[in-house]
Amino acid sequence: MAAPLDRLPSWWLEDAPHDVDDITTEDRRQLEAEELRLREAEALRAIEDKMRELSRTDSTMLRDALDAEREERKRREHDERTARAREAIVELEARMSPLKVQQPVR
């Protein structure tokens, strides 16, 4: 049984006999080993690509979480400053109210 030509690596075709039916058992083993090596290399590249993608996704998610936390902290700090300012205004108004002098009506 002859191997399909599209499965033959280029290096083998260059050195191959002109009659593809002359493929020996050893040649077949070499071809199968080469095909397995290529599939493993392709699978490894796919895994590495996925890991890089996940790493970027993790980095993005982490950056987004940190940004959200930073924005929440800024909002809380602003709310606290606003509350303190309101309390100060109320306290100041309370201290100033006895000092208000009524103007005589003309």
Q: Return the structural class.
A: mainly alpha
As a whole number of angstroms, the C-alpha radius of gyration is 39 Å
Mean pLDDT figure: 82
**Major pleated sheet:** none
> Helix share of residues?
over 70%
What is the terminal-to-terminal distance? 122 Å
Shape: rod-shaped
The strand count comes to 0
Output the number of helix runs: 2
What letter string, H or E per element, gives the SSE order? HH
Stretches where pLDDT falls below 50 for ≥5 residues? none
Question: What can you tell me about this protein's structure?
Answer:
By secondary structure, the protein is an all-alpha fold. The protein has a domain at 24-95. 74% of the residues lie in helices and 0% in strands. The protein has helices at 10-15, 25-96.
Write the layout of secondary structure elements.
Elements: H1 10-15, H2 25-96
Keywords:
106 residues; mainly alpha; 2 helices
Brief overview:
This protein has 106 residues and is mainly α.
